[in-house]
Each structure stands twice: as structure tokens, then as C-alpha cells.
Amino acid sequence: xxxxxxxxxxxxxxxxxxxxxxxxxxxxxxxxxxxxxxxxxxxxxxxxxxxxxxxxxxxxxxxxxxxxxxxxxxxxxxxxxxxxxxxxxxxxxxxxxxxxxxxxxxxxxxxxxxxxxxxxxxxxxxxxxxxxx
Length: 133
Hints:
CATH superfamily of one domain: Winged helix-like DNA-binding domain superfamily/Winged helix DNA-binding domain
Shape: elongated
Strand content: 5-15%
Strand order of the largest sheet: 1-3-2
Helix content: 40-55%
Largest sheet: 3 strands, antiparallel
CATH architecture of one domain: Orthogonal Bundle
């Protein structure tokens, strides 16, 4: 009678493991499911561009200020302690990306988040980073 095969299990920290499979084995059923449900390359590109806009701390500071209330450029400038031209430049980027909207009232322009999706993205981002702290 053959001896039973003993498999030695070595526990390692996941951070110490390489990001490759030790054995090349494709799970075609999973791959097919993923491919069916994946967004197209064009949509992925659009999403990457959106996340690039979120990749600037000044723009994020503006967005978090607008979480609380609509503000004019002067208000945002004062709240962030930055000059108006720097704020105006970032507002243009945020507006082009569809993250904020502007409401004109006489000689003033008031900015606010474009919709609730923007608020959710910011809140989920903060929730994620606060999770581990």
C-alpha cells in the first residue's frame, strides 16, 4: 500500500508573494463570464480620464468644499486660502469633466456639484481610506 502524500503548507504573508500564479492554469468559465460583463475599452478610457480629474488635490479640495454648499469663486478662494486665478483654472477642469455646474446670479457665478454621483464618489473614497485607520 502506498503512503499517503503529505503536502507541506507554508504560511506566508500575502505581501511577500509574487503577483503571478505558480502554476499556469486558466479558468475559462470565469474568464468568459468576466469578458461578457466587462465594459468596453472606450468606456474604460473615459473612466480613467474621470479618475485623472480626481487625482489633483486642489480639485479634490474644491469638490469637498462644494459638498457642503454652493460657492462662488471668491468663497472657494477664501476657504482654500488660494488665489482666484488658480481656483478658476481648476473650476474649468471640473466643469469640463462634468463634475460641477455653475449658476449665474447677477454678476456672481455659484458653483455646485453636478449631481449626487459626484458626492457619492467622494464619500466612498473617504470611507475607503478611513476604513484602515
